Every structure is written in C-alpha cells, then in structure tokens.
C-alpha cells in the first residue's frame, strides 16, 4: 500500500481508552457554521481540525461542531446525492466518514446513529474493490475499514479480520468486536437504543467491561 504521509500507528487498546475518556478535556478549533461542504473540507476537519483523541470519545462540543458544519452534507449523503464523490479515494473516504462517523455524532443514542451503517459498508466495499486504499494513508484507511467493524454480520467481521491483518493496526480491537458478534449475533449495547429486547445473557454481559464501543 502506498502511504502518502507519515502516520502514527495506533494500537487497539488506545482506541478503547479514547472512547472512555472524558470529553471535557478536548475542544475543536473551528465552530463556524457553514452549509454543504466539499470532500476536502470533511477530510480536513476530521484529520486536521480534530485530534485523534476526539475521534472516538463522546464530546458535546464535537457533536455540536459537526452538526453546525456538516448536517446539510450528511443529509445529502444519506439521500445518495454525493455519488459524484465516489470517483476517487478522497471523495469516497469523505462520504464514508460522513455516513459512518458523523451519523454517530449527529444522532448519538438514537436509532439514527446506526441508520447509515449499511450504506457506509457498501461504499467501503466498493472503494476497496477499486483499490482506493493505495491512495490513502494508513491513518485514513482505518476509517475506510470501520464500517466493517460496525457491522453486526459475522461474515463481514471475517472479512474485517483480513483487512485489519493486512493493515497492521487495530486487529486486536476488531477481534473484540468479532467475539461479541460470534457470541450474540449483534451488539447488545445497541439493544436499548434500537428497542430490541435483551436476553438474560446479554444483560449480564452489559454489566462487564468492554461490553460496548
């Protein structure tokens, strides 16, 4: 894979710690309200304006900034109106980040947070089929692969293991996700949000560490 710029590999435990950190320690650099954004603006915001710690923690400020800057763009992506972005790696990655990541920021703790997961996964599969990983940095490729990790399909997770093994990062974190899908066939921590009834085994599982991501 051709790496366009130096990146720091982040092991899976680091991602897990990031998710559990308090949001009060972080801030975004720009809260300017704008309309529909370009793919380059999405990537600049995600990879330059935000720190890596801010990608995975819960932060009201980050959520608000994304809502102010990218809600219109997210709506267009969800409606399938950004298909012209898919002609190259950067545009494809930007659309995937909007659907896979921004959905979680915009609609945290609601069913809409996961509503675009299927579309993000299909776009990621198409991007991989076109070999777009070769035009992205390792840091960027991890977000191309995240829709696989977010899937509740064991078949998709088996493919995710192959992808993360080749990438050389976050494999351990993917294996933790895969183990949950193997055990329950879904992510139990989503049950309450999606109004799914939890089994007694899932209820017990949710009491322990590493039960949600």
From TrEMBL:
Secretion signal, residue range per the UniProt entry: none
Taxonomic superkingdom: Eukaryota
Pfam families given in the database record: DUF924
InterPro entries registered for this protein in UniProt: DUF924 (IPR010323), TPR-like_helical_dom_sf (IPR011990)
Record protein name field: DUF924 domain-containing protein
The species this protein was found in: Skeletonema marinoi
């Amino acid at each position: 894979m051709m790496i366009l710029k130096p990146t720091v590999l982040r092991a899976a435990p680091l991602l897990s710690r990031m998710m559990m950190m308090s949001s009060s320690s972080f801030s975004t650099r720009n809260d300017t309200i704008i309309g529909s954004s370009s793919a380059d603006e999405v990537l600049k915001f995600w990879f330059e304006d935000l720190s890596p710690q801010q990608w995975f923690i819960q932060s009201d400020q980050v959520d608000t900034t994304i809502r102010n800057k990218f809600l219109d763009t997210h709506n267009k992506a969800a409606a399938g109106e950004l298909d012209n972005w898919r002609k190259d790696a950067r545009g494809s990655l930007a659309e995937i980040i909007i659907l896979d990541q921004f959905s979680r920021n915009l609609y945290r703790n609601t069913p809409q947070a996961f509503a675009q997961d299927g579309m993000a996964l299909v776009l990621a599969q198409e991007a991989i089929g076109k070999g777009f990983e070769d035009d992205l940095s390792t840091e960027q490729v991890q977000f191309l692969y995240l829709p696989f990790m977010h899937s509740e399909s064991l078949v998709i997770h088996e493919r995710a293991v192959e992808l993360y093994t080749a990438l050389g990062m976050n494999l351990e974190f993917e294996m933790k996700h895969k183990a949950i899908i193997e055990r329950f066939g879904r992510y139990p921590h989503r049950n309450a949000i999606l109004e799914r009834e939890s089994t007694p085994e899932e209820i017990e599982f949710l009491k322990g560490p590493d039960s949600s991501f």
